[in-house]
Specification:
It is a single chain. By secondary structure, the chain is mainly alpha-helical. The protein is built from 6 helices and 2 strands. It is elongated and about 55 Å long.
Length: 151
């Protein structure tokens, strides 16, 4: 093992006090999280739409109502999973987690703000730059990090 590899291993084993860019989940993992969670949210939204239509005995749902159901599902889905477990199903699969700057679990209000921010138009494109940190991250002051860095 070279001196650089030994140094890298020592740095990796050292517990960090605050999140830095080296802890952040990669853009690829963020994108994978998004796709997995998007599929789940679409599925849950479709189920809610069908249940609503059956309940009121009407086949068609207005476009505005379908958007409202979708927004409701997004907020509930992320609040439940990230609020209780610190990660969505996509994050469970990619072994990433939502944390505060000090690696602590975010409070429910932070998760709620994060979830509502996902409704901002074009927000899903906000993390595609070099930073891999979306508006829902920066506005709620949270981070998505690799689980291997959480002690």
């Amino acid at each position: 093992m070279s001196a650089n590899e030994i140094l890298d291993e020592q740095v990796f084993q050292q517990k960090d006090d605050f999140v830095s860019k080296r802890h952040w989940a990669s853009g690829g993992k963020r994108f994978t999280n998004y796709i997995i969670d998007l599929i789940i949210v679409y599925f849950l939204t479709a189920i809610c739409g069908v249940l609503y239509a059956i309940n009121i005995e009407e086949i068609e749902i207005s476009r505005l109502l379908s958007y409202a159901i979708g927004a409701f599902v997004i907020i509930i889905y992320y609040c439940i999973f990230e609020g209780l477990f610190g990660r969505s199903i996509g994050k469970m699969i990619t072994k990433t987690r939502v944390v505060n700057k000090d690696f602590s679990k975010p409070m429910f209000l932070d998760i709620f703000v994060r979830s509502v921010c996902r409704l901002i138009p074009f927000e899903q494109f906000s993390f595609l730059g070099e930073e891999y940190r979306g508006w829902h991250d920066s506005i709620s002051d949270t981070y998505v990090v690799e689980e291997k860095f959480i002690g």
